[in-house]
Amino acid sequence: IKQLNGKAAEGRRAAAVALADLGADAAPAAAALEKRLADKDTSVADAAAIALGKIGEPALARLRRALAKQELAASAMLGVEALGPAGAELLPTLLTVFGKDTLDAERYKQNSERAVKAIGADAVAPLREGLKHHAQAADAARLLGELKELAQQPC
Fold first, then answer.
1. Average pLDDT of the chain?
2. CB–CB of 96/136 below 8 Å?
3. Given this model, what pLDDT does residue 94 score?
4. Among residues of the chain, what percentage have pLDDT more than 90?
């Protein structure tokens, strides 16, 4: 945990990767990982998000808070991806960021696609709900397109 606050970005990233490898056993480091989501080095923020996702349910609230913050959302989506199907619970929060201007729209787009693909079939219902909201509709439709075969199945 101490290395997460080191001066060198590579050291902070390596610490987050090591914690990700621990999975749920890294839960005591969740607060420190959440702080790293705001790291100025995106590789550190991304590694911290993945570590939170690998922790699983104990980190859901932390990832939800990060998804709600536009400046942290792109990295937090990688945590949703690491959660896999359990990340479906976070899709409504993820969808609220859609339609807002982001500093790195392409990264946001790619990471949201990765998250939705990792969630799989459980992503379809929240994305269909997103179609009903003007600000979310275009992105929800795009993400449903990523799950084309699953989305075409009846509810």
1. 89
2. yes
3. 83
4. 57
Q: What is the mean pLDDT of residues 56-85?
A: 94
Place of tokens 């100025």: 40
Pick the closest to residue 18 from 57, 44, 56 (CA basis): 44
- Whether 16 and 33 have beta carbons less than 8 Å apart is answered as yes
End-to-end, the C-alpha distance of the chain in Å comes to: 44
For every residue of 90-102, DSSP letters joined together read GHHHHHHTTTS--
Number of Cβ within 10 Å of residue 114's Cβ equals 16
Contacts (Cβ under 8 Å, ≥6 apart) of 132? none
**What element of type H or E holds 20?**
helix 9-22
Q: How far apart are CA 108 and CA 142, in angstroms?
A: 13
Residue type, 55: I
Residue with tokens 């997460």: 4
CA-wise closest residue to 57 among 40, 73, 32, 79: 79
Question: Rounded to an integer, what distance in angstroms lies between the CA atom of residue 37 and that of residue 69?
Answer: 11
